[in-house]
Please model this.
Amino acid sequence: MSNYKAAVVGLGAMGMGIACSSLKVGIDTTGCDVSTAQRDAFESAGGNTASSPKEAAANADCIAVVVVNQDQTESVLFGDNGVVGSLPAGSVVLGCATVPPAYARDVSARLINAGLLYLDAPISGGAAKAATGDLSVMASGAPDAFAKAKPFLDAVAERVFELGEEAGPGSTMKMVNQLLAGVHIATAMEAMALGIKSGLDADKIFEVITASAGNSWMFENRVPHVLDNDYAPKSAVDIFVKDLGIVLETGKRDGFPLPVSAAAHQQFLAAKAMGLGREDDAAVIKVFAALSGIDLPDGNK
Model:
């Protein structure tokens, strides 16, 4: 394992956990982030750091691009300080951001032409599972790419779903997941707001619903943010403005109706318009609060 070198570009909530999980199993891991504080934190955990993707990619067998969107992915891979031209031939790139499937296919073709391997490898599980090496990875790509990435994937993921031998299905599956995640968050916050407006205690709503058929993973995970009045972003409103936007653009392209996704997207857009784009996605409840005049929990129990 000591001869295997990995790099993680993007040391946010997910990327930091991924980099640390790689490090814990003995992989020589380099972390890269625009934030000096994030690089310092990874150094304190025992990792190597680089100030640019190009520097991080040098001599790496595997590099995971754990950034927010297509534009950031493009810059990391092909920008002036991008990894292409620095990665050794035959290295594998894992594209972990949620991007349109067509973009994943385009990236794959360009990297293959550059002598590199590519896995279309979006991730799910949140910061907690990233930190424990228990992510789910929705991956598609050539068998050689899976083989090259295996030591790294074994370190960071509980389950790796192999969805095909070409790029595209991985991002398509993540798109479907994000459709459900975004709708579930918006619906959970609508339900909480209705209950509060109707006179129910917020803590009791959470207690009853999490023991009942109306529960969802997102309800159980996000409502505590509301109860604690803690909207520090674990996953921001802006993420679902983007991700549900990808869902809706795909539906428009394919002539496929997505009425529930569209309604949820409007609530995230409303939250963004209220200046809440960088708050936790649970902050979409503040849209309902503003419309109905309810008081949300203050975090003091």
In short: The chain is about 50% helix and 15% strand. The chain has a mean pLDDT of 95.
